Amino acid sequence: MTLTDLANPTKFLSLTARLLPWLAAATAILLAIGLYQSAVAPDDYQQGATVKIMFIHVPTAWLSMLVWGVMSLAALGTLVWRHPLADVAAKAAAPIGASFTFLALVTGSLWGRPMWGTYWEWDARLTSVLILFLMYLGLIALWRAVEDPSRAARAAAVLTLVGAINLPIIKFSVDWWNTLHQPASVFRMGGPTLDRAFLIPLLVMALAFTLLFLTLHLAAMRNEILRRRVRALQLIQAAQAGRRSA
Amino acid sequence: MSLGPYAPFIVTSYLLVTLVVLILIAWIAIDYRRQTMRLRELDASGVVRRSGRSAADSK
Fold it and tell me: Between chain A and chain B, how many beta carbons pairs sit less than 8 Å apart?
């Protein structure tokens, strides 16, 4: 099967049916390993056991941005190449991305209370992630509000690409402004500053969450293709009923 | 494994992530069942796709 074959929704459904069980199993295994490593990881000398929140907060925060990045690529696919699956991919990813962003905000808040003494601070990192969450909700609302899928797809694609401006703002907010949030400690010039005892469980959890996203995304794309097929058939059914009654 | 005085923050974080992931999985599974059921109903009512395939055929 070539990459261009995936443009065909029927072939995509067939591939998804074969891939999903393997992806789900790999996700479950990696999550189990990551959770075990997180549980046995030592306490941080400053943060104590609260460092365990990092193993779920950081992967969800990375995915909140990665999912918008995936949606931005899909938006290009919709606007430039008019790929039949591009809008399906973007629409299916949005609720998953919104969920990860919500989790990043709440787990960050639960980590911030014991470490910073506050659940929330209107600083650049926290505010820009909150804006990302609101943009996810706005996109989901847009898809629901516009009935014609092709019109909704174009509007959503433009909004997604405009919203992508927020991604570098989130990433570099801790460098550009004074924030309560700590600067990058994994993806930075000069390599990670985290000790291996924390870095390895964190990377395993990040990989597990990325696989989780991939699994959920493929399953949600399959649902979206079926939903569009149902809609098309209902239109055919309504047209046939109209001709019979005329 | 002792979580110390901040155990409620750590446990709540992990429970919340578990809950949201489970909700996502359930929502996707329920949506799949709903769509396949609708396709079967359309198939039973005799509606066919433009390609001539039956409604529920995904091959």
Answer: 99
